[in-house]
Fold this sequence. Notes:
With about 650 residues, the protein is α+β, with helices and mostly antiparallel strands. The protein folds into two domains: about 10-260, Beta-galactosidase, Chain A, domain 5; about 275-550, Aldolase class I (TIM Barrel, Alpha-Beta Barrel). Helices cover about 15% and strands about 35% of the residues. The chain is built from 13 helices and 37 strands. The strands form eight sheets. Strands 6, 7, 8, 9, 12, 13, 14, 15, 19 and 20 form a ten-stranded antiparallel β-sheet that branches. Helix 5 (about 300-315) packs parallel to helix 7, helix 8 packs parallel to helix 9 and helix 11 packs parallel to helix 13 (about 540-545). Residues about 1-5 have low confidence and may be disordered.
Amino acid sequence: MFKWANWFGRNEVEKDILSPNGQIKCHFMLKSGQISYSVYKNDKLIIKPSFLGFLICGEAPLGNNLKLIREQKKKSDEIIEMPWGEDRFIKNNYTETAFYLTENKEPHRIITLRFRVFDNGVAFRYEIPPQPKFQQITIQDELTEFNLDLNTIAWKIPAYQPDRYEYNYEKSIVYDLKNSVHTPLTLKTPNGFYLAIHEAALYDYGSMTIKLNDRYALKSDITPLSDGTKAHVGLPFQTPWRLIMIADSAIELTTNRIMYALNDAPTSDFSWVKTLKFIGIWWAMYVGEWTWAPGERHGATTEHAKEYINAAVRLGISGLLIEGWNEGWEGDWLENGINNKFTVATPDFNLEEVARYADAHQIELVGHHETVGFIDNYENQLEAAYNYYAANHIHYIKTGYAGSTMLINGRREFHHSQLGVKHYQKTVELAAKKHICLDIHEPIKGTGIERTWPNLLSREGARGQEYEGGALSPSHACYLPYTRLLAGGMDYTSGILDLANSVKRMATTLSRQLAYFVTIYSGMQMAADRPFIYEDRFPKEFDFIRQVPTNFARTIPLAGEIGEYYVVARKDRDSEDWFIGGVTDETSRRIHIGLDFLDSGAYEATIYADSDNAHYRDEPFGIIHQNKHVGRNESLDLYMAPGGGFAIRLKKP
Ligand code: NOJ
Ligand code: CA
């Protein structure tokens, strides 16, 4: 039988796609039926020729028998306005080419590869349209390579480990990535480029981890399902975007916003979403004063909740998180979590009464659902649980997924598998319907979906301050801006000022705890210590915590190196004020900051900095308070002690 596809199309193709300013080049190749790509900046090689394709269960590999039947080009030059975040405006400026490919021989499957080349990165995705005899497929493997020089430096956390993303970052080289690591994977090439490999718009697929393959190229390792496959999908299907962020410096990388640009605009009204700062019935459990479980020292009682609401009012903080309010925390809660009830409060906690009290005092309650990864139990109650909160005017929920895996459909699955990804998405979409915002702990990593679902205000998804008391070094918070935070905001539970607490000693200085409110963005930002610590011991420091915004108009990274230090300035979305934060590792540093990013006119600077003798171990409370007038022609010299930092508020009088 005559088949047009047998003679139409080209078998050997090489095409360049140039970014709008011409500096980034993606080179697409089709050679002997195999597709591949490479990436250059200013003609310097960044990604060597890298193969693309799929293994599909019960089918021949897809990707090595192809010819090009059509190619389609597009350009975009638009500015996206984000409802909240680190930058109000984001550029979506790229050159796109879609390559429509078909197989040379039976079964003549078709696949599209869509590339978008930005001035600061390259993204591409696979799209598989529905086709005869090929409608439901099971992905056995995705063969995407990111073929880098083996001496490229990599800052990694391991994948498939019991504590999910909650690991310390380690510096190594690509040659050592024999076991899978998570993305964003931050890299520095021998020719001096800073890269991050990540993905955008992850909705119905396993999360991408990365490791070396047998030809020593980095390759996608999609998180598997318990049946050993990577994903079951119906056609049409498109993978998340594979994203390579490219920068000339470490700090330039930190404001790469392509991930958001690759996600779609929201389809409904989210004007009800508001970022939030909150305190919580929380740290008292970590330092052993209260418990999650009912009993003599139960934290979430009606009485404590009312006291904390009164404290929030006095402190000028808008929200209150209450953990341990529901049935299920008795005994070993990690073991017993399968019975957690999300609509039943403990006898000493009257949710309706507390909610009315919060309403009367204009405090937003942040509800809490600790699922312990028992997804079947949670999903059975999901609608009722969200309705219960919504009926009590609770518009924020912190969710949690403690546990090394999840129980989904009676089987143990990775949090980052296709089934995990779909569960998190279900919570986001249901919450949106009920006008509820989420802060997801033990989450799926950020892939920019909060552009489409702005009610997803924050995530954890890295080691946070709950690990203090021994497991966090001062370098950790100096890695985050260059690694985890490339995937979006994080609830780091900042602002713990009781640094010398014998149960949970902090490896930071006092001013560094303030700096975190600027260096670690979160749409739901927790002032994590107990209120009496703020009121009785650190009222002056708390002024900064109260004043620092949770929504910024602009972010300007000023200085830093990965894992060593980070200094950033951010302008408030709702005023003319600027805020600057800096953090350093174990090494003390002096920093000179030019203020030419400020608008014209005078500012009143309130500075919280480490004293000369401050030290995260020996003198954590060593702080200097300074006030002065500055303008855009001036500069500031600041000292950061070992494990220290600084915070500055610049207010227009
Ligand atoms: C881990 C979360 O990160 C933490 O914030 C929470 O308190 C516990 N799980 C209990 O839900
Ligand atoms: Ca956690």
